[in-house]
Amino acid sequence: MTDHARLIVELSDGRPRTLAGLSEDLGTHPEGILAAFRELSNSGILVVRLDANKYCLAHAIEPLDSGLIRGSLPEQVRRKVVDLDVQQRVDSTNARLMRLSSHDVGGVRICLAEMQTGGRGRRGREWLSPYAGGVYLSVRQHVVPGQRHLGALSPLLALNLADALRGLGARGIGVKWPNDLVRSGKKLGGILIETRIYADQSVTVVCGVGVNYRFPPEWSTRSDRPIVDLQEIMPRNLVSRNRVAAVIIATVVDTVCGMAAHGVQDLPVRWRVRDDMVGKVVELREGNGKTVRGCSAGIDCSGRIVLHTERGQESFALGDVSLREAM
Question: Residue 8: exposed, middle, or buried by beta-carbon count in 10 A (0-12, 13-18, 19+)?
Fold first, then answer.
């Protein structure tokens, strides 16, 4: 059986390789290589046949590298990390960290994946995770006192990630309540936060983040909404994928620690600057099927969305709800 990870490394620089050369280097029969090409295509990596015997990737990719990522973290964050695990393929990075049953208090644990087969967004929605098409990672931390400002964590993290990506040169990124990164109405990334609360009121928080990096065009039709990636936002100066991963990790760690220590009093003002929906007529759909229509007026300090409805100003908490612009 062909080792897909090794095959991808062999092809990752984008240069043409002969089938015979790949077969010799990997110790695999040529038919096994061809079968692996077909499987890679289904995973989101297109292998192009140049002539009868030469193949290359449609574009070069940068595999995730735990050493490079760890080395790019700020020192104060790196000291907190006790485990940084890069997987080729997982069901979900969040699920992998949530399966850890111990009451972790000894540091930050991180899981990254080249591909997720069961990536999830809020309300159980599928998060499309083609191989190397994005940065998919989760960060597990223990927070004491645990529940302070926890409801505001999702929008706060979305804001901080938008600022961090802007620092890398990705301009024009906005936010959509409660946890989406967007640009011109298209989705760039999302956040999924899961928690485990203990008897002492401390909390283990797992923050999952997915950001589209170089999303395969053929996968875009699988999404229920328009998608944008960093390659489109910054085509001439696309930042290293490992560097993006490190910046996301550092932002998550600092946000969770800072939230517990400093609060979120400035959240409404910061959110309004980047809010993709502010001033628009929107529909908020609750889990019971009820729909509320109103004009979006930002969020409050608790992370609740504020709508001007026919009944006046109303606030809605993060939960089993979804938000979209009214037609």
Answer: buried
Beta-bridge partner residues of 33: none
Q: Give pLDDT, residue 1.
A: 41
pTM summary value: 0.88
Scored b (16 or more CB within 10 A) or e, 68-95 reads bbbebbeeebbeebeebebbeebebbbb
* Alpha-carbon span 47 to 59, nearest angstrom: 9
Helix, strand, or coil (residue 320): coil
Residue-level length of the chain: 327
Judged by DSSP in three states, 223 sits in coil
Cβ atoms of 181 and 172 within 8 Å: the answer is no
Q: Which amino acid is at 136?
A: Y
- Grouping H, G, I as helix, E, B as strand and the rest as coil, residue 310 is coil
Q: What is the pLDDT of residues 70-105, one digit of tens each?
A: 999 999 999 999 999 999 889 999 999 998 866 666
Contact 60/14 with Cβ under 8 angstroms? yes
Q: Are strands 81-90 and 108-116 parallel, antiparallel or unpaired?
A: parallel
